[in-house]
Write a structure and sequence with these properties.
The strands form 5 sheets. An 8-stranded mixed beta sheet has the order 9-6-10-11-12-13-16-17, with helices on both faces. Strands 4-3-2-1-5 form a 5-stranded antiparallel beta sheet, covered by helices on one side. Helices cover 27% and strands 19% of the residues. Strand 11, helix 6 and strand 12 form a beta-alpha-beta unit. Helix 2 crosses helix 3 and helix 5 packs parallel to helix 10. By secondary structure, the protein is of the alpha/beta class. It has 11 helices and 21 strands. It folds into 3 domains: 62 residues, SH3 type barrels (Roll), CATH 2.30.30; 218 residues, 3-Layer(aba) Sandwich (Rossmann fold); 118 residues, Rossmann fold (3-Layer(aba) Sandwich).
Length: 454
């Protein structure tokens, strides 16, 4: 059902009713034509008509007396889309017969912008595209690999939880152990680096590549990055680097993608197409859409024979808190009281928290550790490492209060790792040992200067 255009001004609604216009209709407003979209009450003026143009971008057109508004006689693009998908299915079947020698790549879709498309009834964009739709939009994939597709769940990444990670780890291992030469996971970008870290710990000693990818721009936009990200990711999935990683644009233009290690990558920009950058590490590889793949790090696990194993024991009762000037140490007390079994603190610079301040964190950290709740400190600087041996305040936090330094781990990686560690043990001594052990490339003993802002 089309909606009644709530959010627009009374004058515009009156004009729409007179012309029989509803959201999702193709209309003409002055010199512009496109799909009528809902008016976002907060971010747009109710006196502007929002159109999705044929180039994929939205435009707000001020409505005033004399502006020409009418329905378009052009058909909605839904019919064209259905015919296109039918043609792709035929092409897919033909390719499968012709290219059975291709490596098998399994694409698992879990939602996000890369799995979003326009609802041509409303003009809105939502996470509703299946894995099959993704292949339909990028038929070039069929020339690269024998593609198997499946939608596991459809969620935006901000709604992901530890249970999704566990299911994804098990399903990924199943595909790898039943004929897939590599797995590509299409995922929302906002929390993709949390998922990549979780899979890196839950899928130890991988024999084949597991590649996460997404899109910063939905497929209806002219600047969509989903096709190239998918193509490069399938190339990476059939490549020689058998690790969990994220493959996304390496720069703003459509030149190449970076394949970054899953525990050493972070989304560093809210909208840029090259938002995912290596942190305290080099990328694993550069990947070009034509299939060229250049390793940029000598430190990676090569493809090998063997079965994928799953170690998905995980304790989700872990929290992240941030230390800042005049911050409240009672946050630590509250989390312990609420039953949290582990806490990651984003400390300043080398891993500080307020120590000799009026609101010192030291008593609360010491109390938490004394009650059996490990407190891990990572640096909120993102780059660099925590060092407990430089200042006296640091020695107080780590040697007297008992906090665990996270080294050069990202706070997000430390958070995921602590949940994974606590899924294996609650003994504080063993938790410390495991947090300081390098399992999936999350800890580097030495950082090179050119890793910064790579």
């Amino acid at each position: 059902m089309k909606s009644d255009c709530m959010g627009y001004s009374k004058e515009i609604l009156k004009e729409f009713r007179k012309k029989g216009i509803k959201e999702g209709d193709r209309i003409i407003v002055g010199d512009y034509e496109g799909l009528l979209m809902p008016s976002p009450d907060i971010t747009a003026s109710p006196n502007h008509i929002i159109l999705k143009l044929d180039n994929g971008y939205n435009m707000g057109i001020e409505y005033k007396k004399g502006v020409y508004v009418r329905k378009s006689k052009k058909p909605e693009p839904k019919q064209v889309e259905e015919e296109y998908e039918f043609e792709v299915e035929e092409h897919h079947a033909k390719k499968l017969k012709e290219r059975v020698e291709h490596p098998v790549v399994s694409i698992l879709s879990v939602g996000g912008t890369i799995a979003s498309k326009v609802d041509y009834r409303t003009g809105a964009v939502s996470a509703a595209m299946t894995a099959k739709d993704l292949v339909a939009q990028v038929p070039e994939l069929l020339d690269i690999a024998h593609i198997e597709v499946e939608t596991l769940f459809e969620v935006m990444s901000e709604d992901m939880a530890a249970g999704h990670w566990v299911k994804l780890a098990k399903e990924t291992a199943k595909r790898l152990n039943h004929g897939a030469d590599g797995v590509v996971i299409t995922h929302g970008t906002d929390t993709m680096h949390y998922t990549s870290a979780a899979l890196a710990f839950m899928l130890p000693d991988l024999p084949k590549p597991v590649v996460l990818t997404g899109a910063q721009r939905s497929t209806d936009r002219g600047s969509a990055d989903s096709a190239m990200n998918l193509i490069c990711s399938v190339h990476a999935a059939r490549g020689n680097i058998a690790e969990v990683g994220i493959c996304m644009h390496g720069e703003m233009s459509d030149s190449f993608c970076l394949f970054n290690r899953g525990t050493k990558v972070r989304k560093m920009h809210s909208t840029a197409r090259d938002a995912f950058r290596p942190i305290n590490d080099y990328p694993l590889a550069k990947v070009w859409p034509d299939g060229r793949m250049e390793a940029t790090s000598k430190n990676y696990h090569p493809r090998r024979k063997g079965k994928a194993t799953v170690d998905a024991r995980y304790q989700p009762k872990v929290a992240i808190v941030k230390a800042y000037p005049d911050s409240e140490p009672k946050l630590i007390d509250y989390l312990v009281k609420q039953g949290y079994e582990g806490i990651v603190v984003e400390g300043t610079a080398l891993g500080h928290v307020p120590t000799r301040a009026k609101k010192s964190w030291i008593p609360s950290v010491k109390k938490a550790v004394g009650s059996g709740v490990p407190v891990v400190v990572a640096t909120q600087c993102i780059y660099g490492r925590v060092n407990p041996n430089v200042y006296s305040n640091l020695r107080t936090l780590y040697y007297e209060a008992g906090a665990i330094p996270a080294g050069d781990m990202l706070p997000e990686t430390a958070y995921v790792k602590l949940g994974w560690v606590l899924g294996h043990t609650k003994a504080l001594k063993r938790v410390r040992e495991m947090m300081l052990t390098n399992y999936a490339g999350e800890l580097n003993s030495r950082l090179q200067p050119d890793m910064f802002l790579y």
